[in-house]
TrEMBL record:
Location of the protein in the cell: Membrane
Membrane topology label: Multi-pass membrane protein
Name of protein: Cation diffusion facilitator family transporter
Keyword entries, A-Z: Membrane, Transmembrane, Transmembrane helix, Transport
Amino acid sequence: MNQHAEELKLLRFSIVMAVIYTTIGLTWGLVIQSGIILFDAIYSGVSIVLSFLSLYALKLVKSDSPHPEDVKESRFQMGRTAVEPLVITIKSIVIIVICLYGLTNAVLDLMAGAKGAHNSVAGIGYGVLTALICLCSYAYIRVKGRKLPDLVQAESEQWLIDTVFSVLVMVAFGISFLLEQTAFAHWAPYVDPITVILVSLYFIQVPGKRLLTSLQELLQMTPEESIQTELDEVAKAIANAHQLGQPFVRSTKIGRQLAVDIAFILDDKERRYRIAEFDQIREQIEARLKPLGLSLWLNIIFTHDRHWA
């Protein structure tokens, strides 16, 4: 199975599991009147829409034409890879908004006098069931998609959040159940909204980090340090092997595409080069960078004048 087909398969699997998860959450939450469960279900419901958005983005990226003769007729002559970080940005913002919504509702619930859920045992059962669903979904997507691009990675992170969320729900209802058996039973109703507040504050960090990364890609900032180091090492090695002088490297990562601009400042102005030599050097650079696992957009120039680098 090729990479595109594997991505589609994992995203569709995620959608099916999210529908099951959301249905369970809405039903369970309404029956026992639990704010934390309803918050969890709403989060999962929105994730279904976001997963469909990921599928659409994958379709757009896949439809990029690899044929140079078709580029002139395309509205996206530099490719559609920016769709990926754009979708991840939207997903991250939506998830942050959901967390803020849950946080606000929980605070208002506390101020109005928390009522709590009607059945702590049922809440514990929900936590156990959904934790298993989420953990299995996360593990499957993580293992199958460990070498796939950011869209799938973001999907697995979403299931990891849901897994921890479900465990916290189980713990919260366990604490509530224990309090109900003691003289501190009047504190039990506050466990539900307090858990929502803590969970919202904690989980807002995950989409926050993903949002920062996707914005860096949309702004065409430099890629992560490990990629920059590899590019510099490859450029210097090629320059030394072919006596090309000092290389200047510029790069940015946009979705699954790594755009690299390398300019070699040729020291020997008397030496004559053949175009075939330059093409051979380009091929060597491409071969050295392929293990990065990204779609390469290479622009390699040779000049005597630093002005053109």
